[in-house]
Amino acid sequence: MILIFILIRVFASPFSNFFQKKLTNSQISPLFVVLFAYSLLALVSLPALWFLEIRNIPNDFWILMILVGVVDAFGNFILVKSLQNMDLSLFGPLNAFKPIIALFFGIFLINETPSVQGLLGMLIIIGGSYFLNISSKGNRFALYLSRGFWFRILGITLSAVSAVIVKKVVLLSDPITTLVFWAIIGSPFLSIIYLFQKKEIKKRDFNLLFSQKLNFLGLFLSITIMQLFTLFTFQKVFVGYSLALFQLSSVINVLMGFFLLKEKEIKMRLLGSVIMIIGALMILLK
User: How many domains does one find in the chain?
Assistant: First the structure.
């Protein structure tokens, strides 16, 4: 059963990235893209509050859930912001940096010292990222100088920290309860930020909402499925192993970027994706 959970999550992630890319390409603001997914999920989740056994949930759950809601909401906004500034086939493979960042925080937060194998895996991931940016012309190190890359690294960092906290939250409750409050807490936080957007940006976002309704629907479904099965996986598998297995979605990202968005340099990006997956597995599989 856990293999099914992982496979569903692996396939849902590239589709959520694809719809995010489609929407930001249509000039919809990244913040509105994330806010829509959170708000619709929060609205749909409200009836579930009647059936959840909230009284039995310990107090630690609420503290950690609020922290997760805020960190994850902001992290998702940063990730979509980075997607606005880079190709989908680059966006997915860069997620393989997450095990490195999780390993870094583990050294200081939970005294986990990386092995020689782990350090070698980190070097392989960094090397694989170089292949993502090899092209027939231009600066081969341009990826590391781009805004999209550093937005992506910031978003991945927030996501890695959030993943550790989410694991504790799931163990204190269950995946459905965690998903419901993930949306209900994150949505107001994003709404407050969106209030400070310029009026012309808000007007454009809502004007494009209906013309892009199918992409918004696809975004909502893919993000909901992805988040739910991430939580199911965390409930059964160590966070580190989960993050490594989720890197399989990077190859799908590259293929979708090539076939659906007509992005270039597919061979080197596919090679880079495979190298980074090998590095992620070396860090986490002992």
Answer: 1
Residue of 70, 50, 13 lying closest to 186 (CA atoms):
70
Give the dihedral sign, CA 133/137/142/147. Answer: negative
Q: Which domain holds residue 123?
A: 2-284
CA 283, CA 244: separation in Å to the nearest integer? 8
Take residue 156 and report the two structure tokens written for it: 């991945």
Q: What is the pTM of this model?
A: 0.77
pLDDT digit string, tens, across residues 88-143: 556 555 666 776 777 676 666 556 566 777 678 767 766 776 666 555 455 455 55
| Per-position b or e across 4-30, b if 16+ CB within 10 A of its CB | ebbebbbbbbbbbbbbbbbbbeeebbb
**Cβ-defined contacts of 142-149 (< 8 Å, 24+):** 143/90, 146/85, 146/86, 147/82, 147/85, 148/82, 148/83, 148/84, 148/85, 148/86, 148/90, 148/91, 149/82, 149/86, 149/94
For 136, phi then psi, to 5°, come to -75, -15
Chain-centroid distance, C-alpha 28:
19
Cα–Cα dist 205/148, whole Å = 21
| DSSP secondary structure, 193-235, as one string | HHTTS-HHHHHHHHHHHHHTHHHHHHHHHHHHHHHHHHHHHHH
172, exposed or middle or buried, with CB in 10 Å at 0-12, 13-18, 19+?
A: middle
Instruction: List helix spans (H) across 93-238.
Output: 98-109, 116-132, 142-145, 147-172, 175-194, 199-211, 213-236
Helix axis angle, 59-84 to 147-172, nearest 10°:
160
Residues 6+ apart with CB under 8 A from 256: 14, 15, 17, 18, 88, 89
Beta carbons within 10 angstroms of residue 203's beta carbon: 11
